[in-house]
Design goal:
Layout lengths: L2 H12 L1 H7 L5 H8 L7 H13 L1 H11 L1 H20 L4 H29 L2 H15 L1 H16 L3 H21 L17 H9 L2 H31 L4 H25 L5 H24 L4 H13 L1 H13 L6 H26 L4 H20 L3 H8 L2
């Protein structure tokens, strides 16, 4: 299978995650009105999904190493589709949170399978390029998701958004069965017994370089997750924008992500992915410093938006480079390494976003300061990466 076709199918699969996060963001006000709750409380449905998305990967990753990628990925899609229908029928916030947690299990099995499949097929700089192609394709999903959600709201209500997501999961089952799995290079099943799963996780946890990259992923994703959780509040409540205006500004983040992703691919021919990662983490930090300064001085909306777009857009280069580096050292435990990466990323980011919803979701300054704090930690980890690792990865 060509890298393009592999990236297309895996990109369509991993796009399920951004769709589940972003498609219903414009519906936050209507969900809050329907349940009779504060706007900020709706963010708990997003945080619950993200936290489960992380924890369940700790189970899905090792299972995919042992039993293969196909049953875990297809099983995850089935769970996602069924629970999507149940979310659409939720009659209260508590019901919605419960079914979003269950949906997170299905989403986790899908999320952990995609990077593991990439690591099965390629490694090194080729993996960074393939992750870049997958990222470029999947950027269509978060760019279109709020607009799709706003469109469905104009014809119906928020329930229809989750029914469409369930239908998309069913479509993916058919597409992967017919076009992906029959064409993949065969991968021998791991013979590791269940009792050594802890040992496998310890192998990853003890690898300092891998854990450094996992830390960078956690902190950069937390920065983006804070924005996603509060994006509806920032644009629709704080600045009073309409659903369509919110969708346009949200899509602008994805446009910059895609642009930096395209620029990153040819740069990989001249620079190591570690060097590019450092530069883009620093760029994100600089944009967030500017954002905090503008908000603290009560600057104009257009300047706040520009800083947000600059900061979130940097994810387009950060994610593919960091994913390739984090998985590079575990070719035979790709599912386990991907699970630890995903679990750390989504669980910690979900926890941070949940805390921000409870304690700091009613004003703009605490939100942007939290984003800056996460980015500061990522910069420290990126700058402290051993130079030997950069040389090693550049030579792959």
């Amino acid at each position: 299978m060509s890298h393009f076709h592999l990236a297309l199918l895996l990109g369509m699969t991993v796009a399920l995650g951004p769709l589940a996060l972003d498609a219903y963001l414009p519906a936050f006000p209507s969900i809050a009105d329907g349940f009779g709750i504060p706007h900020s409380d709706v963010g708990l449905t997003l945080s619950a999904y993200v936290a489960t998305l992380g924890l369940a990967q700790l189970v899905g990753g090792p299972l995919s190493d042992r039993y293969g990628r196909r049953p875990i990925l297809l099983g995850g899609l089935a769970i996602f589709a069924i629970t999507g229908v149940m979310v659409a029928q939720a009659g209260s916030l508590s019901d919605m949170v419960v079914w979003r947690i269950a949906q997170g299990i299905g989403g986790a099995f899908c999320a952990v399978s995609v990077p593991a499949i990439v690591r099965d097929q390629v490694g090194g700089q080729d993996a960074a390029r393939l992750f870049g192609m997958i990222g470029l394709i999947m950027f269509i999903a978060p760019a279109a998701a709020p607009s799709l959600g706003a469109l469905m709201l104009s014809f119906g209500d928020w329930h229809s958004i989750f029914l469409v997501l369930a239908g998309y999961a069913v479509f993916l089952v058919l597409a992967l069965q017919l076009a992906l799995f029959p064409k993949l290079q065969p991968r021998p099943r791991a013979t590791t017994p269940v009792k050594t799963l802890v040992t496998n996780y310890l192998l990853v946890l003890k690898h300092r370089t891998t854990m450094r990259f996992i830390g960078i992923q956690v902190l950069c994703f937390s920065t983006m997750m804070l924005f996603i959780t509060h994006s509806s509040f920032i644009y629709q409540e704080w600045f009073g924008l309409s659903n369509s205006q919110f969708s346009i500004l949200f899509a602008a983040n994805i446009v910059l992500m895609a642009t930096l992703n395209l620029i990153n691919r040819p740069l990989l021919r001249r620079f190591s992915s570690v060097v590019l990662l450092r530069v883009q983490v620093i760029m994100q930090f600089a944009a967030l410093v500017a954002l905090v300064a503008v908000v603290a001085m009560d600057g104009p909306m257009w300047l706040v938006v520009a800083c947000i777009i600059g900061a979130i857009g940097c994810q387009g280069g950060i994610v593919p480079n960091n994913m390739a580096n984090a998985l590079e050292f575990f070719p035979h435990l790709g599912g386990t390494a991907a699970a630890l990466l995903g679990a750390s990323q989504f669980t910690i980011a979900g926890g941070i976003s949940a805390l921000s919803s409870v304690f700091g979701g009613h004003a703009l300054l605490p939100i942007v300061v939290s984003m800056l704090a996460c980015s500061c930690g990522a910069v420290l980890l990126a700058l402290g990466a051993p130079r030997a690792v950069a040389r090693e990865l550049a030579a792959v």
